Amino acid sequence: MKSIKSVYKIGNGPSSSHTVGPYHAAYKFRKRWPDADAFRVTLYGSLAFTGEGHGTGNAIKTGLPGAEIIFNRDIPEDELPHPNTMLFEAFKGGKLLGSNRIFSIGGGSIRIENEPSDEDIELYPQNNLSDIIHMCHQRNVGLAQYIYRMEDVSIRDYLKKIWSAMIDSIQRGLSAEGILPGGLGIERKAKMLYEKRCYNESADVAMNRVIAAYAYAVSEENADEHIVVTAPTCGSCGVLPAVMYYMYNDRGFPEEEILDALAVAALFGNVIRTNASISGAECGCQAEIGSACSMASAALATLYGLNIDQVEYAAEIAMEHNLGLTCDPVKGLVQIPCIERNAVAAMRAISSVNLSRFLYSTRKISFDEVVATMYQTGLDMNEKYRETSHGGLATIYS
Ligand code: SF4
Asked: Same domain for 247 and 184?
């Protein structure tokens, strides 16, 4: 399995596969052809259907100024090598210099056709969670220690940078007000949720309201095309930071322990990415929000000092009850249902951890099994529900 570092990427929202990935692809392609005087980029599949709402054209033009962008919606998805396919072409004096097909494979990662990627270096001999847990039991180490042994020495600095970017996105989101771009007229709600204490509010209600406010803050920053951290994607970027920031800011857990929890969350995201998918275009929202919910559950269980089996069970519960979740963003924007869905998933992560504390010894389904199920469910899912805005809320509400 590859480094956990590629699970978290800092970049502009609103979509890791539709903005972060295409931006990096454009930037990389421009460096290949410094003498070109014109570029053309053709988008296919989900990028063609929802790229306008997701701001894909702007993201590509940031990396490749002046590029002509074509949204080709004529090729059926089953004739494409990947649901998020881009054809980059460089010209000089009207003559084609070169081209590449580049795939945005989820979470901001890209793959250039027929080329190995920088992210292809294998650091972990284990590829699934059962093998990882087996190794941890054999060596008598926890999941965080296992990760630090496998990664290079820069891992803690990297996690610190990620955590600091997550905090920034929450704080910016909590102080911002106004209408989100895109035409749906959606007002930012994070600040209001954070400040709106109910009369006689119980501790439980306050906790849920504050966590929801944090999730809204990050997701609204994402919808506004500001900087967020993929966790594991932009669309699902509010879940993990919301839960971790609550534990840090409101419950006083130290940063050192938050970093360990983030490392464990990334390990779970990495297992999902390796064995299934974290892309809404490939497997629906279960692959984005389901993965984020699983990661947040694993992180929270780690922070509470639960044992490895409880951590695994918390992550399994979180994914299991997101199975089948479709991706149907209204107008191709990452707003409805995405923002609210981040808040609900953050609360669900807490419930998953609470259940896992008491019931882990009775469980029947492993994390690896639920990941395999999520993947198969995603492959079976009708294309309408995989980030094309051709079904569900996207067609009912306009
Ligand atoms: S519905 Fe889910 S997968 Fe689809 S864009 Fe929104 S957050 Fe991402």
From this structure: yes
- Examine the fold and report which residue of 112, 145, 172 is the final residue of a domain before the chain moves on: 112
| 261-287 tens-digit pLDDT | 999 999 999 999 999 999 999 999 999
pLDDT in tens, 113-144: 999 876 778 999 999 999 999 999 999 999 99
How many angstroms is it from 131 CA to the middle of ligand 1? 30
| Among candidate residues 105, 228, 112, 91, the one with its CA nearest the CA of residue 172 | 228
Report yes or no on 228 lying in a domain: yes
52 in any annotated domain: yes
Which of 289, 322, 333, 374 to mutate to test ligand 1, by most ligand atoms within 8 A of the CB atom? 289
What is the distance in A from the centroid of ligand 1 to the CA of 288?
7
Element (H, E) at 357: helix 338-359
Domain that holds residue 205: 129-396
For ligand 1, the distance from its centroid to the CA atom of residue 387, given in whole angstroms, is 7
Residue that has been written with the tokens 């500001």 in this structure: 226
Instruction: Provide φ and ψ at 105, rounded to 5°.
Output: -95, 10
Residue of the CA atom closest to atom 1 of ligand 1: 327
Q: What is the pLDDT of residue 120?
A: 77
327 touches ligand 1 (CB under 6 Å): yes
Report whether 232 contacts 278 (CB < 8 A): yes
Q: What is the pTM of this model?
A: 0.92
